[in-house]
Design brief:
Blueprint (H helix, E strand, L loop, with lengths): L2 H8 L12 H9 L5 H9 L7 H31 L16
Helix pairs in contact: 2-3, 3-4
Length: about 100
């Protein structure tokens, strides 16, 4: 008997050991087997409050809208702030403030 056969004889479960899916993965597959990763993630993280893929899509759309609004505010606000500065602020001689 060679070494591999002896190992398989002593350890029959070693041949077919596979990682079992977690409870969250099973729930996501049950509720939305063909849905995308982020939709399943939103459904899993909601704790059951989001029941179908349409609701999850709306949540993701809302998150994207909030992120878009924040980014537009960040990029547009400094230009409006520059226009509200006093006229002589940009003409101040900065050389006297160098170390």
């Amino acid at each position: 008997m060679d070494l591999l056969q002896e190992y398989e004889k002593n350890q029959p479960k070693a041949q077919l050991q596979r990682a079992l899916p977690t409870e969250g993965q099973l729930l996501a597959q049950r509720y939305a087997p063909d849905a995308g990763f982020f939709i399943r993630l939103v459904m899993k993280l909601s704790g059951g409050r989001i029941e179908n893929t349409r609701q999850a899509s709306m949540v993701l759309l809302g998150v994207a809208g909030i992120i878009l609004a924040i980014s537009v505010t960040i990029f547009v606000w400094p230009t409006s702030f520059k226009n509200s500065l006093p006229e002589n602020f940009l003409k101040i001689d900065q050389s006297q403030y160098k170390d």
